[in-house]
Amino acid sequence: MATPHDKVFFGNGIVDAQDAKLGVATSAVLYGLSVYTVFPVHGSSTTRTAFRLPDHYQRLVESCKIIGIDTFASEWTYERFVDAVREVVAVNDPQDEVYVRATVHVDESIPGTRVRGLHTTVSIFLYDAAPIVPQDGMRLKTSVWRRIPDNAIPSRAKVNGAYVNSVLAKQDAIDSGFDDCIFLDINGHVCELSAANIFLVRNGVLITPDATNDILDGINRRTILTLAGEEGIEVQERTVDLTELYIADEVFVSGTSAGVAPVHEIDGRAVGSRETGPMTAVLRERHQAVLAGDRTHGWVTML
Ligand code: PMP
Question: Which CATH number describes the domain made up of 7-129?
Fold first, then answer.
């Protein structure tokens, strides 16, 4: 299990990890009323880069807006956010890749089930980067749990409380001997994994559920779509049936903590010949290059 590095940005500055605490009566604890993002930081003290930081900040702002957390946007700017990230990374001085989790917590005590005007505290901590799914061919199971629809708890907002849905589905997959789940929406169409987006390849076309299919609009998903376009690959963002996954030539997933990782089996059916397909391999290699700091897209921020 990953542990946070020693120093955490909490509130207005750096504190020891054991002092970065929320009260038991706060909305964050009572209702899971926090929004967050996770992004990777590469390199060591001389050259350190964060991947697509403006996009992660923007998604945090948009998550707040959807949920109605209005104090974050009035108190924070992108510049202040980058300074806080720089500070917490510098003080911990990680020597390997880390994931950085930035969260906006609604930390007012017992305000009841409402959100506007409530006090927020930002936390930013680092932990060692370790993928949450196997990188050499994972086995997936269609979940017995459906993805929460946009008109219940929006998947587009990365809100902590909604992750109970992911916990249920991932645990069900693990209990059944699989690596992760495939979430379907309430109509039975494919959404995503517990914490990664999904892609399939059929007859040379790259297909992924579109952003209105109750998915998180993943930043690595967007990255893959851009890289695929550059490779001249035809891309379709559209509704996907489960049975399309069963007959796909290749299936892979994307996410900050999942990487770009191949799927070799779904519901007991082999994907292709249970080997990582050529399109997965190309996109995975391109993805790893941009994560490692390939400057051509302007996706890296020097820390
Ligand atoms: N879907 C869900 C539900 C997730 O939690 C994540 C991880 N943030 C993703 C997809 C992938 O998003 P990203 O590429 O921004 O990490």
Answer: 3.30.470.10
Confidence grade of residue 296 (pLDDT, cut at 50, 70, 90): confident
Record the pTM. Answer: 0.97
Residue closest via CA to ligand 1's atom 3 equals 195
Whether 218 lines ligand 1, by a CB cut-off of 6 Å, is yes
β-pairing, 205-208 with 234-237? parallel
- pLDDT tops 90 at residue 6: yes
Alpha-carbon dihedral sign for residues 113, 117, 118, 122: positive
Cα 8 to averaged position of ligand 1 atoms, centre (Å): 23
CATH among 3.40.50.200, 3.40.50.2000, 3.40.640.10, 3.20.10.10 for 138-291: 3.20.10.10
Is residue 293 a contact partner of residue 49, using CB atoms and an 8 Å limit?
A: yes
Which residue CA neighbors atom 9 of ligand 1 most closely?
A: 196
Does residue 85 line the site of ligand 1, with CB under 6 A? no
Residue 1 predicted with pLDDT over 80: no
Residue 154: CB atoms within 10 Å = 18
Q: Domain segments of the chain: what residues?
A: 7-129, 138-291
Test site for ligand 1: of 182, 216, 283, most ligand atoms within 8 A of the Cβ: 216
Q: Which helix (H) or strand (E) holds 192?
A: none
